[in-house]
Amino acid sequence: MSRGSAFVLTCWQGNADPAFGRAPNDTVERGLPRWRMFATPDAWLWNRQPFAPETLGAKHEKSSRSSVERIPLMDAATLPMPATDVSLIALFWQAHWVVKAVMLGLLACSVWVWAIAIDKIFLYARTRRAMDRFEQAFWSGQSIEELYRALSAKPTQSMAACFVAAMREWKRSFESHSRSIAGLQARIEKVMNVSIAREVERLERRLLVLATVGSAGPFVGLFGTVWGIMSSFQSIAASKNTSLAVVAPGIAEALFATAIGLIAAIPATIFYNKFISEVNRQAQRLEGFADEFSAILSRQIDERS
Questions:
Q1: What angle, rounded to 10 degrees, do the helices at 244-304 and 207-239 form?
Q2: Alpha-carbon gap, residue 192 to 195, rounded angstroms
Q3: Residue 76 domain-assigned?
Q4: pLDDT tens, 93-124?
């Protein structure tokens, strides 16, 4: 142990005299005088006053600072990510412009599907009521001539239109004094068939839109989903971060396009199947009436012949 080290150890153990900075005993290590002890290399510690309150406070501050500095820093990838807005409106605005175009197109198709569905519901209801009223008047025993005059004065549709077309051909044939009875029967049947075809076409109008949206809507939504996932993977590659907080919003935006496609396609498919069934039912009623009325006219032709 050096001379200066011996003095420092003596002072740190609290054996130094505060007044003179020397040990209580008069012994000098290795025969050095007392005044030489202040000239040792570690004498600067005495001038720092190691036992002063200020020095103790500085030591406590240094210890606190070192303990704070020893706290391990967290990795940036493990830090909590800020909350991401995943509401439907936010997902739409954060999506790629191609995905936005797909979403807007599917929403427009969905609105169009519901508009067509509401229109067809009221149309088929009016057609059924018109058929019921005509059949009630036709089978009530009223004269066919009177019924024809009442219906021919105004535009008619459905079963009444078929009846008016057949009666008009009947009257034209007899007014022209045609002698071809077989030809008259064929012409009346053809006229009624044309009238039924026009009525069915009117009932089936715009049903092709429902069929198209119902079949192609999910695939259009899937296209938006694929494009959105591709954009999400590109963003992941650019940010070099594969945490769920980074991946989830992009995938949610992409899947939102598929959800809108299903929202447009499912009602379209349901309405299309229902309306096709309703059209077939009304077409069968028209064909049944045409067969019955053709039989009635055939008897009239036989009587006149």
A1: 170
A2: 5
A3: no
A4: 766 677 788 888 999 999 999 999 999 999 99
